[in-house]
Amino acid sequence: METNMTISTLPISTELIAEHNAALMASVDEDYDALGRKLSRTGVDIDVVKNKVAEFTVAVPSWGAGRGGTRFAKFPIPGEPTNIHEKLEDCAVINQLSQATPRVSPHFPWDKVDDYSALREEAASLGLGFDAVNSNTFQDQLGQAHSYSTGSLSSTDAATRAQAVEHNIECIEIGQKLGSTDLTVWVGDGTNFPGQQDLGRSLDRYLDSAAEVYAALPGTWRMLLEHKMFEPAFYSSVISDWGSSILAAQSLGDKCKCLVDLGHHAPNVNIEQIVARLHRFGKLGGFHFNDSKYGDDDLDSGSINPHQLFLVFNELIEAELHPREGFNPAYMIDQSHNVTDPIESMMASADAILTAYTKAILVDRQGLTAAQEANDTMLAFQALRSAYKTDTSPILAKVRQEKGGAIDMIQAYRTSKYRERKSQARKPVGLGSGIV
Ligand code: RM4
Ligand code: MN
Ligand code: MN
């Protein structure tokens, strides 16, 4: 990709970003130097940390670019995207200002177009690539032959299962044209009533169908299974927990891994331990980052429990230091933005995710292991706590600035008046309820 072509098609003016950064640079440098001195007292080189953080990226979901909603309502904002082209443009803004989200994860059929090579080029001209493709067998589409009301991959109806398998294979084919190498499969299959379906046989049907999808995976592709405890099925989900997920992944084969969506667990579940367990068995395939307080699985990453996010990243650093074969998790944001501008939410979320990562890098690993070996509970805990307490924002600001992003992303975004401009140019979004 030619640099000047990229610059001319990017949605935010590079002069605006440079001007914005120039006004804030002196204070960032001052804070960065002060933090650098503090960290060097414990033998940590801040530039090494900064360079590591600069390499970390997280994908954004195409569906996150629009305002989501609840089962009850959706409140669109002017200038919201209504198709994949507009979504890509918004994702380009997020990446331009954050310099941390260079890939977009598409969802089909929502993002269907006629020409996928053209879409791939369009994304590239915006500085973006494509991440995992997501299939959708949790909704019926107009004109669809068989309804998913009885489930999809696990439906009691053979023709419905075949249709769901075929859709997943079509997603793989589209993904190949877009340059993806992962298929993420989340099904809404499950029941609302005890007795509605046989709990064992529905899993058998799921496994048979999933095996057909698995068999269609091209050489380097992976299939990522996403579990979810409830919603839309409120009594039982077919792949409800990490146990079902790892059993399914193990029976499907090496190219099948588990994807952990942070919002899909029972309240208070120890997600970081699940991460450690999945890694132990070489089955940690990826993440959907978000947060939750009660039943919602799509609040902004780190908005409710940033400490949990840090503990998850602490396990990921452990995993990175002790990799199992094929360890290469796909990192992605998966959120629904009901009350904020999605661009702002995803920039803030990328910042929360990178913050958790940076803090996890700062953990004194040797000290932690030594305290664990000596059964010194307090010192082990303090090894985590002292990293968690560190204000790493100067590192993140410096990383963004050096990569061409904005020191204060939200301020730069608001100054650009991007959304106002789009509200003139784009057609209004319809009402209706959101997605789960
Ligand atoms: C689900 C799940 C999936 C996402 C859909 C839109 O709850 O998190 O990853 O594809 O929502
Ligand atoms: Mn998800
Ligand atoms: Mn979800």
From TrEMBL:
SUPFAM superfamilies referenced in this protein's UniProt entry, alphabetically: Xylose isomerase-like
Lineage: Bacteria, Pseudomonadati, Pseudomonadota, Alphaproteobacteria, Hyphomonadales
Protein name: Xylose isomerase-like TIM barrel domain-containing protein
Organism (species): Hyphomonas johnsonii MHS-2
A Pfam family it matches: AP_endonuc_2
Residues covered by the Xylose isomerase-like TIM barrel domain: 116-301
Keywords: Isomerase, Manganese, Metal-binding
InterPro entries on file: L-rhamnose_isomerase, Xyl_isomerase-like_sf, Xyl_isomerase-like_TIM-brl
GO function terms (MF aspect): isomerase activity; metal ion binding
